[in-house]
Design a protein that fits this description.
By secondary structure, the chain is α/β, with parallel strands linked by helices. The chain has two domains: 23-301, Alpha-Beta Barrel (TIM Barrel); 311-415, Immunoglobulins (Immunoglobulin-like), CATH 2.60.40.10. The protein is 23% helix and 25% strand. The strands form four sheets. An eight-stranded parallel β-barrel has the order 4-5-6-7-8-9-10-11, surrounded by four helices. A four-stranded mixed β-sheet has the order 13-18-17-15, with no helix packed on it. A three-stranded antiparallel β-sheet has the order 1-2-3, with no helix packed on it. It is globular, with a radius of gyration of 22 Å.
């Protein structure tokens, strides 16, 4: 998934020049491992660089970025929290970058070299993430991988102490063939995989990838992988369903691939508007933790956190996925429990469907809450009149435990014009 959180390549300087511990890929096919200062290091990571204290408390040890514009301060913050950082070196995408333009490709190479030179000696640096899904949207062509090879080779010349990784949006036989043929200086393959993660190891084997890999993004099923209404609204999993998906995929396709998979970066440590305000974030925009963090904590530490998020077993809406007349009456019901027995509160909200949806949520604005419809609804059942204004809407429910945890779900409907 294209995640253009950081497109720039302006680098903020690091405040320390202490030499970094050497990081290297060691072993052979079937017995790969990552060594940090000579010791085995399994990546228990997340995408994003916020809430570092929470990550440490959850048992995580690494973070990943998509661009290097704030790399200096991010490295320093990671070091302060005893975390490592995979720095993303952003490469151009098809929509605005032509890999047949020699001048642009050279400029991109020089910008990448500057990133390597500036940050290579920082002790929090783990590896270089060269590009993120630059082959997407039909851009899996030799010119892209030749450019990646030039950058990876430069990284090794400037900094022989950290591995090179390139990050792709899922895999195909052609993609693997291209990387092997045109970019041999890549040490590790990073794969962003959502619905395809259960079969990723099997497909990597079938396609002939025998170097190590890292799952650089994983999480719930994406909007592109879910059923849609006739007006194009994707059906989002509940936070409880998402947590179960994180857990199974982690155990089977990440932890279960020891000797090949070097670890992973779960998506997203924070919140983000993409299709909805709650789709990918493991935190809510209001700051509450969701059950995805609980299952990662259990996977990383062997223990559940002291207090866990509520479990949402069902959200029903009698007009869900329907095109209804304005002024129609509707009923919504939620069923939820709390594993710790905490008393639950219920926040119902009505929002319009997001407008100007784009690849990876680029430019999407979070729809505001529509006032006067569900304002005073705080129980497990609500009855309301749909708005008179035609268009696409979603009913959202947030179930909170009063301890900083929450469960979420939503269902779409449409008001006739």
């Amino acid at each position: 998934m294209l995640t253009a959180i950081a497109l720039g390549l302006l680098m903020s300087p690091s405040t320390t020049s202490a030499p970094a511990g050497k990081v290297e890929v060691a072993g052979e096919p079937g017995a790969w491992k990552l060594l940090h200062s000579g010791k085995p290091y399994v990546i228990r990571g997340v995408g994003g660089t916020t809430r570092m204290e929470d990550l440490v408390a959850s048992g995580g040890n690494s973070m990943r970025t998509w661009g290097a514009d704030k790399a200096g301060e991010e490295l320093d913050a990671c070091q302060k929290h005893s975390l490592t950082l995979t720095i993303g070196v952003w490469l151009g995408h098809k929509s605005y970058f032509d890999y047949n333009d020699d001048a642009k490709v050279k400029q991109q190479l020089e910008s990448s070299k500057a990133v390597f030179q500036k940050h290579k000696d920082h002790p929090a640096l783990l590896m270089w993430g060269i590009g993120n899904e630059m082959e997407a949207e039909g851009n899996d062509v030799p010119a892209v991988w030749i450019a990646v090879e030039q950058i990876a080779k430069a990284a090794k010349q400037i900094d022989p102490n950290h591995p090179t990784m390139t990050v792709v949006a899922e895999i195909s036989q052609q993609k693997i063939d291209h990387i092997k043929k045109y970019a041999p200086s890549i040490d590790v393959l990073g794969v962003n995989s959502y619905g395809g993660l259960p079969t990723l190891p099997k497909r990597l084997k079938e396609f002939g990838w025998d170097k190590p890999f890292v799952v650089t993004e994983y999480g719930p099923l994406g909007p592109w992988e879910r059923p849609k209404t006739p007006w194009g609204a994707a059906l989002e999993q509940t936070s409880t369903e998402k947590a179960a998906y994180y857990e199974k995929n982690y155990q089977d396709s990440i932890a279960g691939q020891s000797g090949w998979c070097l670890g992973s970066y779960a998506f997203l440590w924070g919140d983000k508007q993409e299709e909805t305000p709650t789709w990918f974030g493991m935190f809510l925009p209001s700051g509450e933790r969701t059950a995805a963090i609980d299952v990662l904590t259990k996977a990383w530490t062997g223990h559940w956190p002291k207090n866990r998020a509520p479990s949402l077993s069902e959200l029903s809406l009698d007009i869900a996925q329907k095109n209804v007349p304005k002024g129609s009456q509707a009923t919504a019901i939620v069923k939820a429990t709390d594993p710790d027995g905490d008393p639950l509160t219920y926040l119902w909200e009505l929002r319009r469907e997001a407008e100007n949806k784009a690849f990876a949520g680029q430019g999407e604005q979070r729809p505001g809450v529509i006032k006067g419809v569900l304002d005073n609804s705080h129980g497990t059942k609500v009855e309301f009149k749909v708005p008179d204004q035609p268009g696409a809407y979603r009913v959202y429910i947030t179930v909170k435990d009063g301890k900083g945890n929450a469960a979420t779900a939503n269902l779409p409907f449409h008001v006739q014009g």
